[in-house]
Amino acid sequence: MALDPDDPRPPYVQVANALRAAILTKKFAAGDKLPSRAELAKAYNVAPMTVQNALRELREEGLIVSPGRDLARRHAGAAGQDPCRTPAA
């Protein structure tokens, strides 16, 4: 998973876009744990802070939640569903 060195966007935006695509195409299902920051940094060949900034973007968009670890939250068409909560009976 290499970033495009000719892409004018900052590396954290490129990482966020790649992770967003993986979540929306269900490579990561709702509720799945994402790889650790260190694993993502190694995979994208970036600093852990770059990954942290990318994850912050996804958190702000509501695509991931962090109840201890980052989790894929939802996919297109599942807006408002939170896999970390069970529906009240």
Topology record:
Blueprint: H1 11-24, H2 37-44, H3 48-61, E1 64-65, E2 71-72
Helix pairs in contact: 1-3, 2-3
Describe the fold and architecture:
By secondary structure, this protein is mainly α. 40% of the residues lie in helices and 4% in strands. It is built from 3 helices and 2 strands. It has a two-stranded antiparallel ribbon with strand order 1-2. Strand 1 and strand 2 form a beta hairpin. The longest helix is centred in the N-terminal third of the chain and has 14 residues.
Mean pLDDT across residues = 82
Count of helix runs: 3
For the biggest sheet, the summary is: 2 strands, antiparallel
The CATH superfamily of the domain at 11-72 turns out to be Winged helix-like DNA-binding domain superfamily/Winged helix DNA-binding domain
In helices, the fraction of residues equals 40-55%
